[in-house]
Amino acid sequence: MTMPRAFVVPxxxxxxxxNPVAGDALIKAGTAQTAGSAAVIEVVMPPGRxxxxxxxxxxxxxxxxxxxxxxxxxxxELMHGPAGSFVFVPRGVAHCFQNIGDVPGRxxxxxxxxxxxxxxEQVAGHLPGPLALETFARIAHDQWMEVVGPPxxxxxxx
Length: 158
Hints:
The chain is α+β, with helices and mostly antiparallel strands. It has a single domain (15-148), classed as Jelly Rolls (Sandwich). The protein is built from 4 helices and 11 strands, in the order ββαββββββββααβα.
């Protein structure tokens, strides 16, 4: 793989895709830009929404909460993440998160190593419209991710 070059992504820059859960995902950097070292995706999440419980086999995942109020689950631990918070979950840990605020929230999601941007790209090819859990799970599996449970809105209602 070629050595990465320095780069700047301007405000609003990146590849805009529909978020697999709801809202938007803006890919700021991925495998091609970082030579596989990291992927960075800005996600806008509507109130009450969040992904299903899942596990990454090869990536650590981190979130910087830019706007809004979120809660995170890592295995059986629930953590509160208001705006300004940074959250880290290592690979192999079942996790999910949820916007618990009344307005859309915005998080910057980091994956290391890179590669998870392909999940967002592949899911976007099936949107808009309802995405069957089986299709979601198959695409996830192809990117070294396993769906292991429902979202926080179902397991831990507010």
